[in-house]
Design goal:
Blueprint lengths: L13 E2 L11 H10 L10 H13 L6 E4 L1 H13 L5 E5 L7 H5 L4 E5 L8 H7 L4 E7 L11 H10 L5 E5 L14 H5 L5 E6 L12 E4 L2 H9 L8 H12 L1 H24 L3 E3 L5 E5 L7 H10 L2 E2 L11 E5 L3 H15 L4
Parallel strand pairs: 1-11, 3-4, 3-5, 5-6, 6-7
Antiparallel strand pairs: 2-8, 7-8, 9-10, 10-12
Helix pairs in contact: 1-9, 2-9, 5-6, 10-12
Length: 348
C-alpha cells in the first residue's frame, strides 16, 4: 500500500497535515516583517530585549524570566543539554509528542515512555516511573498528535510528587486554542516553582510557523543556564518584528480562536456521525480513528491525498488506525468531510 506522501501523488491543494494556522498571521505582522527585511545587512538586536517585555505585558510575567529561541524546539533542545547526560532519564508519555525522545537521545540520556489513558497523559504512570536517575519530565499540554490535555489540578499534583532535582517541562504550543475550563496556563505554575519550565510558540495561533519564534518562562537560574548555551543571534530581525506586531493584534487572535473552535467542533461532530472515533481536541487539529480493514486509516489517507488533500499519518504502531486532520478554512473542512464520507460510503 502506498503511503500518503508517495511521490506519484499530485501536489496537495489543501494542506491539513502540519498543524499550521490556515488563517496565517495578521496583516500587520506581514508588514512588519517586510519593513524589517530592508535592514538585512545588520545583525538583529537581542530578541529578548524586544520580545520579552512585550510578552511580559501580555501575560503578566517577569521579563527577566523569559528566553526567546528559534522556535520552542530550540529551547527544548537547550533544556535537554542543561539537564540531561549519559545515565539520566527523561520521562514522557508513551504516545505523546513523537519527537520528544530525540531530546534525550541527543544527550545520551534515556527516554522513559510511560503508558497513557486513551492518548491522555497519565500523572500516576509518570510518578510511578520516577527514579534516582530521573532529571526531566516532558509533557505537551495540550498533547500532539491526539489533541488531549490534562487539567491544571493534575499538573500541580504531578509537580508536588516530584523531587526538587527533577525539572518539569510543559510544552504548551497549542495553549491559545484551549477552551477547557479546568485547563491552567503553564506559566502560572512556572511563576511560583523553581523546577518548572513552560515553552510557548508563535508558530500556531499567531500563524508564524515560518518565522521560527518560540519562548520559555522559568526561574532565573534556569533562564541563566539556557541563555548561556544559546546562539548569539537566535532569531532573525524580520521574525522578531512579525512577532511583536502579532502580539498587538488581539482581534486577529480572537477571530482565529473562535473560527478554529467552531470548525473543529463541527468537523468532529460530522466524523462521529460517520462512525469514526474522534479524540476530543483542545488544539487546531483532530485525531480520527478508523477500524482495521479495507476502510482503514492508511487507505483513507491515500484516498484523500489522491484528491489533493494532505493529512497526517504516523509511523507509531499506536496510531496505525489513525489520521490527524489540521483544521483549515471552512471550505477545506467541508471538502474533507465530503471526501471522507465518499471513502466510507462509496455507493452513496
Amino acid at each position: 500500500m502506498l503511503s500518503n506522501d508517495a511521490r506519484d501523488f499530485p501536489p496537495a491543494r489543501i494542506a491539513l497535515n502540519s498543524n499550521e494556522s490556515a488563517f496565517g498571521p495578521c496583516p500587520s505582522a506581514i508588514d512588519a516583517a517586510a519593513a524589517a527585511s530592508a535592514n538585512l545587512a545588520r545583525y538583529p538586536e537581542n530578541p529578548g530585549s524586544l520580545l520579552a517585555p512585550a510578552l511580559a505585558r501580555r501575560h503578566g510575567l517577569d521579563p527577566d524570566r523569559i528566553v526567546i529561541g528559534n522556535g520552542s524546539d530550540d529551547l527544548l533542545a537547550r533544556l535537554a543539554r542543561v539537564y540531561l547526560e549519559s545515565g539520566n532519564e527523561m520521562i514522557r508519555s508513551r504516545n505523546g509528542y513523537l519527537k520528544s525522545p530525540n531530546y534525550a537521545f541527543a544527550t545520551n540520556a534515556l527516554p522513559v515512555s510511560v503508558p497513557d489513558v486513551e492518548f491522555t497523559t497519565s500523572v500516576d504512570a509518570i510518578v510511578d516511573a520516577v527514579t534516582d536517575d530521573t532529571r526531566m519530565i516532558y509533557i505537551a499540554n495540550p498533547e500532539n498528535p491526539a489533541g488531549t490535555y490534562i487539567s491544571g489540578a493534575e499538573i500541580r499534583r504531578l509537580h508536588q510528587a516530584l523531587p526538587e532535582n527533577v525539572v518539569l517541562v510543559l510544552d504548551c504550543a497549542y495553549e491559545e486554542y484551549v477552551d477547557a475550563e479546568d485547563y491552567e496556563a503553564g506559566q502560572r505554575l512556572a511563576h511560583h516553582a523553581d523546577n518548572v519550565v513552560v515553552t510557548r510558540t508563535f508558530s500556531k495561533i499567531y500563524g508564524l510557523a515560518g518565522a521560527r519564534v518560540g519562548w520559555m518562562y522559568a526561574s532565573h537560574e534556569i533562564v541563566d543556564m539556557v541563555s548561556r548555551i544559546g546562539l548569539t543571534f537566535p532569531v532573525a530581525s524580520a521574525s522578531v518584528a512579525a512577532a511583536l506586531a502579532a502580539l498587538e493584534d488581539e482581534t486577529h487572535i480572537k477571530q482565529v480562536y473562535h473560527t478554529n473552535r467552531r470548525l473543529r467542533n463541527a468537523f468532529s461532530a460530522s466524523m462521529k456521525n460517520l462512525g469514526l472515533k474522534v479524540y476530543p481536541s483542545q488544539t487546531n487539529f483532530v485525531l480520527l480513528e478508523f477500524k482495521p480493514g479495507d476502510q482503514s486509516a492508511a487507505a483513507c489517507a491515500e484516498y484523500l491525498r489522491r484528491q489533493g488533500i494532505a493529512v497526517r499519518r504516523f509511523a507509531s504502531a499506536a496510531y496505525e488506525n489513525c489520521i490527524r486532520v489540521t483544521i483549515g478554512f471552512e471550505a477545506d473542512m467541508k471538502l474533507t468531510k465530503s471526501k471522507i464520507t465518499e471513502f466510507l460510503n462509496p455507493s452513496t
